[in-house]
Amino acid sequence: MNRHQFATVLFAVGLAVATSSHAIGARQQADKTGQAPARVAEATDIVIGKSLTFQSTVLAQPVRLDIALPPGYDAGQEHYPVLFAFQNTLAGVFGIVDAMGRAAAVPRMIVVSAGVPGEMFALYPREGVAGSGGGPQVLEFLRRELEPFIDATYRTVPYRIVLSHSASALFSLWAMFSAPDAIQAVLAAGPMFAEYDYVRVAGMIERALASRAARSQFLFFTQGNQPELTRDLAAFREMLRARPAAGLVWEFDPEPMSNHNSLGIRTLHDGLWKLYADWSVLPETIASAGGPAIRAHRKALAGRFGYDIGLSPLADNYVRAKWTAEGNHDAVVALARFGCEEWPKDHRRRLQLAFAFEGASRWKDAVPAWEAAIAVLKANVPEQGWQNFLPLYERRLAEARLKTVTPKEREEPREVFDSQGRLLTEGRIFAIATDDLDGDGRPDIAVSDYLNPARVLFNDASLQFTRVVTLKTTAEMVDSGHGVAIADFNGDKRLDLFLVYNEGRPSRLLFGDGKGGFTDSGRAIGAPGLNGTSVRVADVDADGDVDAFVTYYQERARLYLNDGKGSFTVSDQALDNAVTLGDLDGDGDVDLLSLAPGGAGPASIWLNTKGRFSQQERTIDVGQDVAVIGLVDVDGDGDFDLVAVARSASSTLWENAGRGSFRKLAQTFEPGTRVAAGDIDLDGDQDLVIGTGVYLNAGGGRFDKVQTLNLGNLPTVLLLVDIDKDGDLDLVAARGSRETGKTQLLLFANTLRRP
Asked: ∠107-344-390 over CA atoms, to 5°?
């Protein structure tokens, strides 16, 4: 792909991002009970900047300013260069600038689009064109009013780029030489010499160039496929060649693939690319010379741009990739180490060092490098930013730790999870749900208990869960808990709790404050006299909020539809005892599988059509004693397969054959009452915990049982979650006792990563 093709791609991507007024701003509601994720299609506005009216004294008229700040501006203290756009829309310009900034091809910058009328840019009055000839006043407006206003209002560095087109492009050629203190770079798309007296305009530019003070400036100008511009632009280039100006770097590109109207966007992309070439790509000769040469290169860039611009965080990507391919790993590591020393607060430099160690197969060095990357990330990036990187860093850390295990150690039988487990709480626990309920970045545990009040175990840095908060309801429900789900039920972006009770008590909804506090909504959900057994949540009717399925003992399941504010109305649909939710037919909505009360098969398939479920004629003969059905993509083909967990017979595996049909495979598992799925061994596929057995996915529909957990009788809770935030999945399980009728909630840490 050449740079013209790349510009087109960037334009398409950037403009699509910049000009959309609405987009799906869905916050995907993960099902906190292990079921299929909810589908939320909430439309939110995309705001790329703001407009204001600037009353110009110099121009004697108001000027509309459209201003877009770089992403993360409000959360940081960084200062930015400013790009002033004349005769260009903010949306188009910002789309390209943002796309190039995200790719680290240019620094992040502030974009200002100034709505100066096109006729005012003329350098002298044109006959028959009212309001023309205001070019000198526009320059004064830029120098005396606009730039001081932007500098006083925002955090800027003394580097200003002017993007101009047509008449304003011609103006900018004269303006940059007339006021080199105000304009450091010009990207001029199709300067319109043809509509002016070339001799007169060229004379003005030549006089400005002759009296110009020596300054570092950059000029990039283009022509497009406009033959009428060829002669004058050729003469202008000859003038520039004949009058070398100290500190001026200029470049011309004919841009034959663009017409005059489309020329601006290519000029913007290609001009920025050339302006920042030495910033975005570190020459191999300099990288090879090491730290002193790189620092000298930085110093030269600072002199050219007038401030310490540094280097792109990806400037050495090409060199590192080339050296890695050549096997020159020591040089890659040395270059990455220099980056960490030079930019100690940049987590991306730590990432590069970790990758360098991985490329050299130095896994014992890669582990502390990834640990340092995570620490620097959390210390120097706002939480809403580092959450985008953290999962990758934690996964790579876990993989690096696994690589430190020797072949001999790999051949020896090893436990997947800590064999004993650590006691978290006791009771008769039928359900838990996990999520970060207090906003500290660590998963907490909500517990539904038949013998004790529902409660939340808050995860602290030491993983001791010493803070336990009892959940209080206005109905004084102190026990008989049988289910819990976590989601934002009232649309306030904070997580709430849906509690299900047995003993004829209705369900309750508790609203969260985002800091670990919960308040009963005061609303009973479901009729009295029903004995709830579980709850699963999803956006069933695709209206942007989270609905709830509640199952009942020897009764049909009820679907409760949410109005978006946490008020539920029972649906009139007659459903069997729903056991699991998920997209069974690949159409993007939530379907369900159900069993008759008591777990009698076969399983029925109910497909969702705009929130209404229709029972299908085909069924799945899963047996007569099924406790739960899990939907898991065991073969990695993008659809849900089925695990039918039986209480007394063997549990079975069913492959999704498409369009809601399933085929039984030869693989069987031990009996159980619960199933948990996740990538336990970090090899990219889904593993299973069923009953007391841990099964690792061997591919081809085959699983190897690698561990029997100390869970006594069949566990009532199984949930895989990265409790300790080390990048792998731990297991939270409830060990029951038929003799006492009580359960212990235990945490089994994942030990595969340990050397």
From this structure: 80
φ, ψ for residue 454 (rounded to 5)?
-60, 150
Mean pLDDT of 354-358: 93
Which two structure tokens, joined as six digits, stand for 579?
């056991």
Q: Indicate whether 374 pLDDT > 60.
A: yes
Helices (H), 519-597: none
Q: What is each CA distance from 525 to 506, 532, 558, 663, in whole angstroms?
A: 6, 11, 10, 38
Tokens at 58, concatenated: 């110099």
pLDDT of residue 599: 62
**161: phi then psi, degrees, rounded to nearest 5:** -110, 135
Residue 539 CA to residue 42 CA, distance in Å, equals: 11
Residue 69 · residue 50 · CB < 8 Å: no
What residues contact residue 547 under an 8 Å CB cut-off, 6+ apart?
Answer: 537, 538, 539, 540, 541, 559, 560, 561, 562, 568
Query: The pTM is what?
Result: 0.56
- Long-range CB pairs of 656-663 (<8 Å, 24+ gap) are 656/584, 658/586, 659/585, 659/586, 660/584, 660/585, 660/591, 660/605, 660/607, 660/616, 660/618, 661/618, 662/620
Q: For residue 456, what are the β-bridge partners?
A: 446, 469
- pLDDT level of residue 218 (50, 70, 90 thresholds): very high
Q: Give residue 513's pLDDT.
A: 95
Helix, strand, or coil (residue 527): coil
Say if residues 480 and 503 touch (Cβ distance below 8 Å): yes
- Of 222 and 412, the structure prediction assigns the larger pLDDT to 222
Burial class (CB in 10 A: 0-12, 13-18, 19+), 326: exposed
Given this model, what pLDDT does residue 213 score?
Answer: 87
Helix (H, G, I), strand (E, B) or coil at 618: strand
Q: How many CA atoms lie within 13 A of 93 on its CB side?
A: 32
Greater confidence, 482 or 737? 482
* pLDDT, greater one: 578 or 191: 191
Contacts of 67 (CB under 8 A, 6+ apart): 49, 50, 51, 52, 90, 110, 111, 112, 113, 150
Task: Say if residue 558 is exposed, middle or buried (CB neighbours under 10 Å; 0-12, 13-18, 19+).
Answer: buried
DSSP assignment, residue 388? T
191 CB-contact burial (10 Å; exposed 0-12 / middle 13-18 / buried 19+): buried
**Sign of torsion over alpha carbons 177, 178, 183, 188:** negative
- Coil/strand/helix, residue 611: coil
752 in Cβ contact with 402 (< 8 Å): yes
Instruction: Give me the pLDDT at residue 109, please.
Output: 97
* Residues 177, 503: Cα–Cα separation, whole Å: 85
Within 13 A of 325's CA, how many CA atoms are on the CB side? 6
β-bridge pairing 743-748 and 687-690: unpaired
Helix, strand, or coil (residue 336): helix
Tokens 């006791």 locate to 426
What integer pLDDT is reported at residue 10 of this predicted model? Answer: 38
Which residue in the block uniquely carries the two structure tokens 């840095």?
Answer: 461
Query: What is residue 138's three-state secondary structure?
Result: helix
pLDDT in tens, 640-693: 999 999 988 899 999 988 776 788 888 999 998 899 999 998 888 999 999 899
Which of 141-150, 310-319, 335-344, 600-609 reaches the highest mean pLDDT? 141-150
Neighbours of 411 (CB within 10 A): 8
Rounded Cα distance between 246 and 468, Å, is 71
Give the contacts of 649 (CB within 8 A, at least 6 positions apart).
623, 625, 671
Buried-state track 594-615, b at ≥16 Cβ within 10 A, e below 16: bbeeebebebbbbbbeebebee
pLDDT in tens, 454-464: 999 999 877 78
